């Protein structure tokens, strides 16, 4: 698909005010006083009127209450219970409470017992499903199917909404180029064009066509901005980005989410170029509200306002509150920093009341548009029926089927025959009903394991399981460590050896082995960055020992990132990357392995050969020598620098041929568009899906441009022998970029290469030139 726009729109008059405002608070305050922010936040006069009516009645303490989000066990200086804080109008939102009875009780206190009856936002990480768990976001991005992703998040929103959750902390749209970073699993991978498509789809799924759509919830696009570029892939570490990378790579998914109407934005934890994001005036005001035109409100990440003092930006917690408010962080998540210090800052003249009023307007506008004043509650009586709907569970299976990437299939090893009489399912994840769901799968029940899926597919066969070993985190999650918990205890060395021997023995007496390796759910996600991509525990030993038996082996990977499978890629004939596929994951794996579904997903990331190759991504500029230089074949002295699998790669049980590339013109001027058409044919014997991908390269310009950039894609279903023409339209949005040299958006009069094919190595090529 082609997105309608990736670059910023023509500036709104208020955006110009932000763009040319100094970072100092005095200038911004003057702007806010001259044109209250609600005029830009809301277009509807009635919403505007209701906001102003409420604001005029609010005390300073009640205003600060709207800026405060409390957790399940808030630590208030007054030692007040959550119920009392809500009753006093000192809370605007509640975090991570999922008990429907508790949600309803707290909301009733807000709308019946507080002075102004302002309802609460109940926020929760509805990341890839609620009661029914869909594949993790990186997996759904592998589908290259935004319509499917939108449907999935609409189901998640419906289940959350009926449960009383009206706000999700998603989608995460951080571009991730380093597989070591744990939160790569929550995004759409390394490409801004694909990432923007997935951002838009998720926002529309969560929120519907507009905020307040029945059965939907408000989204929060995160983490603004640059969080995915953490140094060394270490979660929460600082990020250093050039203006060009920031605007061309990091911002497009945020722009797409804003264009889709996302109601809230979450500020990031980390420092961006040495300025903490949650205290960064330029980032939150000039860029987010100015250039990108965001008109909702900003929620900090958990305790991020409090952490401004930890970073060393703020002198103390009072100064942290001041800096967060001045930066435009509308709501403090969990730390009570605004609750403790904002009133004093206003009464002492350190923060003008206009700043607080502007931020409160943003929050009230979202609550009104969401329809909370009219419908503040979920519908607990319908929760069981909604969350138990067979169509919802079926949708998770379809999503998983469309998200798994076939990496290797030598000599037609797959699909498997259903006449098999004995199959060994081996590996520590083979019988998993929890890890298979991935991180942020909090509300869903047990999933279908790979073992169960294969047994269901082969009811008359002997399908046995052996664990083969174990792997666990070396360090506990930080929030678990605070509670005194330790990392899960793994098996002893002796137990590991016994498990491995059992697995090898089972392999020897079976016709075929399905080896299920990868990561546990808690080894991927937040606070789960990795120093190595190697298979953890004794999994590599298990892999090599099973392959040494000589039995046919199929490797199924469950993970939230690419792993080091270079050894397997040279020795195992069939490899399926299943990611963390969710509730129906085991059945979906079996569907693909036995050919009931033909795999059609493609990688949304470059797959590195080893940890030392990270970070690795396809859309880099050329450097000292071309990649096809016969004398400079690797950037390393000890191994090839080529990835194991390229971005956009994925196999099928059929084959596809590309031909007849045609451009409707070879020269164009600014304001004109270019049509690129290509014929795609299924040349195999079974129906299948192909993701047609279009890449561009600007040959010269004011800065060095990436060797290739994705600028269009479409997923097709083709019957055997079927041939179809796909047409892409390229316009200024796809051809312009932010120039580091001119410090502006430019459309340059230069020549371009265009390729169309099945992955980022596409060879069918054309060219065109932009002229004055």
Report on the structure:
The chain is of the alpha/beta class and about 775 residues long. The chain contains 25 helices and 26 strands. The strands form 7 sheets. Strands 11-16-15-14-12-13 form a 6-stranded mixed beta sheet, with helices on both faces.
Classify the helix fraction into a percent range: 25-40%
How many strands?
Answer: 26
Label the overall shape.
globular
Spans where pLDDT lies below 50 across 5 or more residues: 1-42
| Rg value | 26 Å
Q: Which structural class best describes the helix and strand composition?
A: alpha/beta
Summarize the biggest pleated sheet. 6 strands, mixed
Beta-strand content: 15-25%
How confident is the prediction overall: mean pLDDT?
92
Widest sheet: strand ordering: 11-16-15-14-12-13
CA distance, first residue to last residue = 28 Å
Tally of alpha and pi helices: 25
Topology record:
Blueprint: H1 13-19, H2 25-34, H3 38-41, H4 45-57, H5 60-66, E1 68-70, H6 82-87, E2 93-95, H7 100-113, E3 121-124, H8 137-142, H9 146-162, E4 167-168, H10 192-207, E5 220-224, H11 243-259, E6 264-267, E7 271-272, E8 275-276, H12 281-291, E9 297-300, H13 307-311, H14 317-327, E10 332-333, H15 337-347, H16 353-370, H17 380-387, H18 390-401, E11 405-409, E12 422-426, H19 450-457, E13 462-466, H20 478-482, H21 493-508, E14 512-518, H22 539-547, E15 553-558, H23 566-569, E16 574-577, H24 585-593, E17 656-663, E18 667-668, E19 674-682, E20 688-698, E21 709-718, E22 723-730, H25 732-735, E23 737-739, E24 744-746, E25 751-757, E26 764-770
Parallel strand pairs: 1-2, 1-10, 2-3, 3-4, 5-6, 6-9, 12-13, 12-14, 14-15, 15-16, 18-26
Antiparallel strand pairs: 7-8, 11-16, 17-19, 19-22, 20-21, 20-25, 23-24, 25-26
Helix pairs in contact: 1-12, 4-16, 5-15, 9-10, 9-18, 10-11, 14-15, 18-24, 19-24, 21-22
